[in-house]
């Protein structure tokens, strides 16, 4: 279990009105084959893609490593993504290489990943679908992974979408995007938030192609965890007038919860990296040309280590550019879409053990981090959504199971990201199998997320009576909190609680 959990951990580092969602234009809706064969060739804007049967659910078709943008290499390094179109066959039967994600943080030796194949050519996505049964046009869940914008990959085993696709009759998509200095370079002469632009192009690809996989382009819900959740929220503001998504799920991350990088701080990191690889040039243009010529493997190895807290936001993360990312969200309005937002009860159970610098911080720091980086931003984002008249739900995750506990830490409980194996049904089974309670909680969680995807406005209420969030009410959804039978006859661990029990230290929530 240790290696499996460790690989995932490093990949981690945020009275309603009924919304009338406009239909997707007909040009984006294609017809899928009437008789579906598992892994069959699917025509896409990227070219014909061949898949195969998923490993554990052989009736699910798995399509891996589909390019949605041209490889961002050579002259396309640090340029906005360019749509990939083609007619050549695509082999969608193997996971793509990991994103380049080394460097940027001090990490303790016992949580370092072993060497994994990585590539700057990473702009791909994966699709899981089971069109042989259920709805002919299924709701779609697009997952954005976390990792502090410096790590993570759609290839992580804990994000495998086959189980949710089979069990919940949805299409699941996971995406790669540029990370670290490749996605958020800080170069003052080019776009600053390339990783966000990558994500947007991936969602546009889903809109344009998902009907061919049995998905409904009118029901695309974006969900993410940590930096992935922050990304989802960034999209809700940056593309408020053209969101594509019909709803948003934000797990332990918001647009402002991790702070927002300033252009000055980002530029300083850019020139620090340039100095580290010998690009001492007289002009910005020459620095850029020199940096483009440095092999990616050399650049990532020589990045100076940056501790969290040394910059206003996440190092090599989203930068306030006034177009996609904003320095102040208080006077901005997100897309008029339903929102499900929340966090875990013990977020810091992971982060305080990741680096020597963090491990040396005083014990009182970690409850403060839990409150002001995760709990308060989740409450604030939920309150914003309510104030705009959007259907809103807020949750808090309490789950802790034998096969998701961190093996080298005495107690870690519901740590940052610990809900993901319940959502994807991917907890490791080598040493401990799922307990009955874990199975029930996982089934319930997947059902809830799918219910939101299928009907973002009413789905959660129909599913199990989830009440819309009221900041001063007893409407906080407590998941895996206490054994409580639901109407579906399982131990659902769903109970309502007062959000103020956790928000008392927040300035406003």
Average of the residue pLDDT scores: 86
Distance between the amino and carboxyl termini: 38 Å
Per DSSP, the total helix count is 15
Using the alpha-carbon principal axes, give the shape: globular
Count the beta strands: 16
Looking at this structure, what is the CATH superfamily?
Alpha/Beta hydrolase fold, catalytic domain
Give the strand line-up of the largest sheet: 3-4-8-10-9-11-12-13-14-15-16
- Tell me the major beta sheet: 11 strands, mixed
Protein name: Carboxylesterase type B domain-containing protein
Family: Belongs to the type-B carboxylesterase/lipase family.
GO molecular function: carboxylic ester hydrolase activity
Pfam families: COesterase
Tell me what the structure shows.
The protein is an alpha/beta fold and 509 residues long. It has 15 helices and 16 strands. Strands 3-4-8-10-9-11-12-13-14-15-16 form an eleven-stranded mixed sheet, sandwiched between helices. A three-stranded mixed sheet has the order 1-2-5, with no helix packed on it. It is globular and about 65 Å long.
